[in-house]
Every structure is written in structure tokens, then in C-alpha cells.
Amino acid sequence: MRLPEGFTSAFLVFGDLLAGLLALFERVVRFGCDEISLTGGSNLNGLLAEVG
After folding, report:
1. Over 70: is that where the pLDDT of 44 sits?
2. Is the pTM of this model over 0.70?
3. What stretches pass through the bilayer (predicted)?
């Protein structure tokens, strides 16, 4: 079964948007809660060092 080209490109764009939203949400969670980090505490220190 082949999907129409418009559908596949729209699906890829939706996937990119979803990945971007997840990355943004992870960043907000890391800033909001120091103890709760989705990828580990060492990344939080690196992110704060970049911003500060």
C-alpha cells in the first residue's frame, strides 16, 4: 500500500514538530525541577553553564 506524497510529507513535518515540542518540554522540565531530569543531572549542569 502506497501513501500519497502529500500525506507522507505532512507526516514527516508533524514528526519534526512533535520532536521539537518534546525537546522544548524536556528543557522546561529541567529548568523547573532540578531533581527531575529526563536525561540525567550532568546535562542540567552543562545547560546552566551555557546559559549563565
Report:
1. no
2. no
3. 6-25
